[in-house]
């Protein structure tokens, strides 16, 4: 079963984090949440999240995908953590998936992983002029090679379903989506 790392930074967007974790686990993926520090994670709206482990305990492990929840200041904490940047660059060099939602695509941009690609990001979270090699769009979800980005909390379900499809195929995505009783 494919494995997914979801790093949880203090101040992450809880709706995104929980939606991603929940839907990927519904699909049967091996999801590991890892805190950047040893404390419970206080999300952007005050929700307390408990990570499965600490990032330092899984930093040497290989994952099929790394998914970054957004939110502020969570995305800033991810961008400032050299372990996260190194993991993302290693993931990219190995041709494995990296994904980010809301303000977190700026972590991918800071790491240089969006150069020459299309991406989406929460409005105002990134100054497009600072990244002239990136084509920013207003799409809900953008897949460009092994990089997946999404717009914000309102697109979290679509984002997570797209990640399921990339890792397990359309049938698995459809099965999870049916169980959610979403109306289209």
Any overview of this molecule?
InterPro entries: Class_I_gatase-like (IPR029062), DJ-1 (IPR006287), DJ-1/PfpI (IPR002818), Prot/Nucl_acid_deglycase (IPR050325). Keywords: Repeat. It comes from Thiocapsa roseopersicina. This is 4-methyl-5(B-hydroxyethyl)-thiazole monophosphate biosynthesis. With 184 residues, the chain is an alpha/beta fold. It has one domain (3-180): 3-Layer(aba) Sandwich (Rossmann fold), CATH 3.40.50.880. The protein has 7 helices and 11 strands.
Write the layout of secondary structure elements.
Layout lengths: L2 E6 L5 H13 L3 E6 L5 E2 L5 E2 L3 E2 H4 L6 E4 L5 H7 L1 H12 L3 E5 L3 H6 L7 E3 L14 E3 L3 E4 L2 E4 L5 H13 L1 H11 L4
Parallel strand pairs: 1-2, 1-6, 2-5, 6-7, 7-11, 8-9
Antiparallel strand pairs: 3-4, 10-11
């Amino acid at each position: 079963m494919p494995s997914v790392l979801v790093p949880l930074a203090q101040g992450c967007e809880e709706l995104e984090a929980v939606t991603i974790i929940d839907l990927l686990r519904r699909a049967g993926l091996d999801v590991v949440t890892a805190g950047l520090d040893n404390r419970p994670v206080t999300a952007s709206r005050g929700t307390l999240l408990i990570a499965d482990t600490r990032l330092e305990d899984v930093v040497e492990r290989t994952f099929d995908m790394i998914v970054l929840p957004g939110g502020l200041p969570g995305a800033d904490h991810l961008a400032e953590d050299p372990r996260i940047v190194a993991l993302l660059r290693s993931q990219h060099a190995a041709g494995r998936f990296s994904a980010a939602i809301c303000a977190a695509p700026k972590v991918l941009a800071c790491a240089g992983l969006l150069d020459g690609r299309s991406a989406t990001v929460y409005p105002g979270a990134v100054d497009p002029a600072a990244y002239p090699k990136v084509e920013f769009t207003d799409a809900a979800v953008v897949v460009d090679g092994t990089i997946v980005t999404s717009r914000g909390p309102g697109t979290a379900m679509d984002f997570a379903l797209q990640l399921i499809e990339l890792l397990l195929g359309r049938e698995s995505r459809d099965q999870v989506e049916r169980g959610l009783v979403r109306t289209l």
